[in-house]
Structures are given as structure tokens and as C-alpha cells.
Input
Amino acid sequence: MISIPVTEASQVAEVRRRATSIATNLGFDETANGRVAIVATELATNLVKYGTSGEILVGTFEDDTGTGVELVSLDRGPGLADLGEALRDGHSTGGSPGLGLGSIRRQSQAFDIASWPGRGTAILARIEAVPRTASACSRFGAVAVPMRGEVVNGDGYCIRSQGSAWTLIVADGLGHGPHAAKASDEAVRLFRSREHDAPGEILATAHAGMRHTRGAAVSIARYIPERGVVVFAGIGNVMGGVVTGLETKRMVSLPGTAGHVARHIREFEYPFADDSLFVMCSDGIATGWSLDAYAGLKGAHPSLIAGILYRDFSRGRDDATVVVARGVAP
Output
């Protein structure tokens, strides 16, 4: 994803340009590209008017619900006391016609918003080339942002669903930049080639096949619905956690570097209920992340959850990736 800071009006055009460029590369026609332009413009304009230290993440999505452009707006502004009122056409606190949030929602195939007084606002918008007549709920979401100043992300991730089950990987190449990206890309490639194997076996394959790279921290997780568990195997500091109710259970990743040093590869099993949430982060995200301070966030779209965790727990000195998955759609 691309992170674009938005603190003043001249940056609105840059958000629109980057978003429509991505849409064009995906094959969006003029009409669909126009919807992307509207959403990007409204999100960025809202940040200029109301946000503090705001940014917009622009990228693509591809999952069971479809493929398209994804935008996540994040700010640390005053927040919204009444989301229902804020979404009503005609409501405005800035002297405008009050059509921004409603327009974003109408132009998007997936839309979600989270806000808390004094804790800022996050907005998710997904736009597809051909709008669907029925909205599907996504079980997956991710935010993956390169370290500021880098063109490529040294982290990589991949999600594969098999019916109700899923398997996912997050790889964090050592350091950052192109060589780190090469290592994480190789981990993802090897994952895809063996995605039906057990997580520990996939990890062993990645470790053996990455010796020509600088290496990476790699973790793999699989949700097995019939058993109600997530099976997890990791080397290095890509951390996973299961959030159930008010409890967050951190997962065990063993020391080492995939491709170079891994004295042990082991699988660990963790209970995973229908209402559980799985979160996996590269070490660009502080290990103390938590959802406890965000009332209602657990029920939000997974990409919105990932965006909030990125906004509030990114270390700011490395690539940052957050992947969020549910067992069942809300």
C-alpha cells in the first residue's frame, strides 16, 4: 500500500491521482475510475477539514468478496461522537453541504467507519470495477506499508481460503528495501507452492528454499474450523494473536531467521471460536498492540481493524504489516 500524508489542501490531488492510477492499472473504465476519484477526493478533503496528523493508505484488495481499489483514511483528530448523525446527508460541522461520508458510502462496495471522541477516526472504502448488487462480508483484511522513504515493502503476506478454512503467511525480510522484499517474496512464493501442507511443513520448505536470500522472519497460521483451532508455526519476530472476548492470546514464534538459522520448527495450537479474531503483525508493529481501548472495533471490517492497529502501534522505523482474519464473516 501507499501511505500519503494529508495535512493541507494541495495533497488532495495527490491522493486522487494515486488512487485513480491504481484503478487504471486494474482495468477500471472511465465510470469506475470516476467513482474512485470521488471517494479519494472526499476522504482526503475530510482529513484536511477535520483530521489531525492524517494519512490515507491506497492499495488493492483481492479476496472472496472481489477485487478492486482499497482506501483507508486514518486520523488522530477529535473523533465523532455520533456516527449515525455524521453519516446523514446534510450533516456538517464545517460549513459544507454535508454530503462527504454519504457520498463515500454510496460509491463504495464495502464501507466501514470507526471513531471515538478524542481518539480519531478511521474510514475504509473498497471500490470494484463493476459494482455488485449484493454485498458480501469479508473475513480478511490487511495493511502493509513500507518504511517511509522506501519504494518497496520488505514485508510480504498471502491469504488462502479453502471453504471455511484459511491459511496465511506473513514474512518480514531482514532490514528493508529491495533485498528485504526479495526475501519475503520468496517466502510467499514457496508458501503458495505448498499451501495445502501443514503449517510446520510449509515453514520448513520456506526455510530450506530461502538460503539464497538475506532471510526473513516468517510465520504461518491455519484455521481448522471443524476442530475450532488455529495451528501456528513461526521463526523470528512475526507475531500472531487470537482475540476472543476481552482476552488476547499471544502465539509462540521460535527464535531464528528463515533461510539461515532455525534450530527448531514446531507447531502450536490455539482455540479459535466463531467470534474470535486472528491478528498477525510484522515487527514494524509494537508487540503491545491491543484492541481493549477501542469499543466495538472487534466487529469492524478486518481492513479497518488492521488500519487502526497500524495507526496507533506502528514503530515508524520499519516496514509495517498487519493481517486480520475471522473464522466466519460477521
About this structure: The helical segments are 11-25, 30-50, 83-86, 100-107, 178-193, 199-209, 302-313. The chain has a mean pLDDT of 92. The CA atoms of residues 243 and 277 lie 5 Å apart. The longest strand covers residues 54-63.
